[in-house]
Amino acid sequence: MKVIAFISGKGGTGKTSMVASFAKVAAPVVAADCDVDAANLSLLLDGKVEHTERFMAGQKAHINPDLCTGCDLCYERCRFDAIRPVDTLYEIDQLACEGCRVCHQACDFDAVELTDNDAGEVQVLAAATGPVVRAALEPAQSNSGKLVTRVRVLAREESDRHGLDLVLLDGPPGIGCPVHATLADVDLVVVVTEPTPSGEHDLARALDLLRKFGRPAQVIINKADLSLTMTERIHKLTETHGGEVIGELPFVPTVPAALAQRRSLLEDATLRPLLEALWARIQGHPALQAETEPAAAEVMTK
Length: 302
Fold this sequence. Notes:
Layout: E1 2-7, H1 15-26, E2 30-33, H2 41-44, E3 47-63, H3 73-77, E4 83-86, E5 89-92, H4 102-106, E6 112-127, E7 130-137, H5 144-162, E8 166-170, H6 177-183, E9 188-193, H7 197-213, E10 217-221, H8 228-240, E11 244-248, H9 255-260, H10 271-283
Parallel strand pairs: 1-8, 1-9, 2-7, 2-8, 9-10, 10-11
Antiparallel strand pairs: 3-6, 4-5, 6-7
């Protein structure tokens, strides 16, 4: 089995719409949306939900009013202002609680109880292109790296269950913990960028991260004709970081309206042959031909 991760360094580059297109070209494949804060790959790869599970991460504190004496110890020690007075007793704001356990340790009357925290949801869908794995992090939760890891694990399980040898990961924007979790044990990374100052800046950060991870990088420049000067700079930047620009896509004004109607980029006569050529370049990368597993170990996430 081979795993290809698609990242962008920033949002809005067109990465997700490309991943959906590549999934349709390469079908059947497993597609997984690792942007658990704003998952939208399944909007373009519609499917029927086959499996749903809750994602539990960390713990939250609760005050038992029957045991609380109003002694103020937990209120005084909470550094997150999560404990508030209610009449003569106290209660905990669940959105503000960080699960640090200080209140639990401070209470001499066992009034503070700890319960497992429901942080999100993971789903597996059956789509025309193959299994689609997605997740949604609940508001005010900070364990997105672990949730991304769960998405990847389920994607591999679906690959084994259906006998599919290719997994496409639609990564989150940025270069933080969720991206680190996405990049664990992948064979190839494709970075989708745009010819803008922010696109150039965030591409540099993404390529630097991939170099530290020891991952081979291919780059796609979307809307390349909007600024030929910036496009040339991105070519030079990619070469400097040891990556490879495998192709460019033009700006097509009708694309936003098509995506709003959940239509694939492959339906555009201009983009379809270009996307198919890009997929051929991706498939031809030596990392996808090798039989050995990636050298890097599993990434630990917060």
